[in-house]
Fold this sequence. Notes:
This protein is mainly alpha-helical. The protein is 76% helix and 0% strand. Mean pLDDT is 85; it is low at 5-15.
Amino acid sequence: MFVDAPISTVRARHDRSRLNHELNRMTDRKIEHFEELLRLAEQGDTKAQYNLGVMYRKGHGIPKNDAEAVKWYRKAAEQSYVDAQYNLGLMYYNGVGVPYDYVKAYMWWSFAKALGDKDVAKNLDIVQKQMTPAQIAEAQALASEWWEKHSN
């Protein structure tokens, strides 16, 4: 089949074939990784839930889907996973995957701060300046109500 082809063409075809094989193996690994994360996340693993949120948010190995990112961030955030609380607050603040909601952004960032995230204080200061006193009071009441309901 390659008898008349120059040696460089044969090598290029072989290299392309090897590259396609490697890409297929990488894709298979990504699918396996995603399926394993999904299985763990559905079982309640907070780190897997958070990582699925990141994958959906960034489109790493799967199609980008902000609503799915919010769903998985929320599941991890509700189990006190600080990075998920931070990212969920960010999603609400920017209106990505959910409607803009400074009250909920403030609430989730408050949880992250309470659980030790030092960087989130800047975000709280920024959002607080954009909120009315009534909105801040609502966010604090929501946070207290949520905390009581979920800390039992």
